[in-house]
Write a structure and sequence with these properties.
It is built from 5 helices and no strands. The chain is an all-alpha fold. The longest helix is centred in the last third of the chain and has 28 residues. The relative contact order is 0.11.
Length: 135
């Protein structure tokens, strides 16, 4: 088996993993949620209007403030939706799995024994001020 074939087998295994399945279902749910998609569309429209207003030669500070508030409100609403919360949770788990896979691959590239490699443990506090660098 060559490296590309082995990679395809890894891809098949990833797609059978419950974390991937949960993510794919959550993504499909989001894609089909009309209210959520309308909220995302409205967010993008307001963001473009804000960008346009901020790059105007003569800026209307009151309008910028109003658009900023509206943007924050729409963002909060979109991110608080049940579908988006599930999507973000599922995506976080999938990303963690992919980081573990990548960690093992990188260790192997650096010469570690493939059968004994373990994913690197990251103790992220969530605060960048205490961080020595992203994993």
């Amino acid at each position: 088996m060559d490296i590309i074939e082995a990679t395809r087998e890894l891809g098949k295994a990833i797609q059978k993993d419950e974390r991937f399945i949960r993510y794919a279902k959550a993504k499909l749910t989001n894609d089909n949620d009309e209210d959520l998609q309308n909220g995302i569309g409205e967010f993008n429209t307001v963001r473009m209007n804000l960008d346009r207003e901020m790059s105007a030669e003569k800026q209307d500070e009151e309008k910028i403030k109003e658009l900023n508030e509206k943007l924050r409100s729409i963002y909060a609403e979109v991110m608080a939706s049940t579908a988006m919360l599930e999507y973000n949770s599922a995506k976080g788990e999938l990303d963690a799995m992919l980081n573990d896979i990548n960690s093992i691959i990188m260790q192997c590239v650096e010469g570690a024994e493939p059968s004994t490699c373990e994913p690197e443990v990251h103790n992220c506090t969530g605060s960048c001020s205490t961080c020595g660098g992203c994993h």
